[in-house]
Amino acid sequence: MVKTAEWICPSCGATNRKLVRSDERRTEDRCVSCHRKHIIEEDTRPVRWRVAAALK
Ligand SMILES: [Zn+2]
């Protein structure tokens, strides 16, 4: 099973979506717009994930 992780890039404001395994709580994704990599974590609300850190 997979679920959608949606997160807002804090660097450029773009909305990103990634399919992750349903048991995942934390992952990395690269912004489609500015290509910066971020660590994202599942939040209390479904779908919308929180950005924990920006990587280069
Ligand atoms: Zn971005």
Textual characterization of the structure:
The chain is mainly beta and 56 residues long. It contains no helices and 5 strands. It has strands at 2-8, 15-21, 26-30, 37-42, 49-54. The strands form 2 sheets. The protein has a 3-stranded antiparallel sheet, with no helix packed on it. A hairpin with a 6-residue loop joins β3 (26-30) and β4 (37-42). It is globular. The termini are far apart. Bound molecules: zinc ion. Zinc ion (ZN) is lined by residues 9, 11-12, 14, 31, 33-34, 36. Zinc ion binds next to loops.
Determine the strand fraction and express it as a percent band. Answer: over 45%
Bound molecules: zinc ion
Count of extended strands: 5
Total helix count? Answer: 0
Question: Separation of termini?
Answer: 30 Å
Order of helices and strands: EEEEE
| Rg result | 10 Å
Query: What's the story with the biggest beta sheet?
Result: 3 strands, antiparallel
Helix share, percent: under 10%
Structural class: mainly beta
The order of strands across the largest sheet is 3-4-5
Q: How many domains, as an integer?
A: 1
Contiguous uncertain segments of 5+ residues: none
Whole-number mean pLDDT: 96
Large-scale geometry: globular
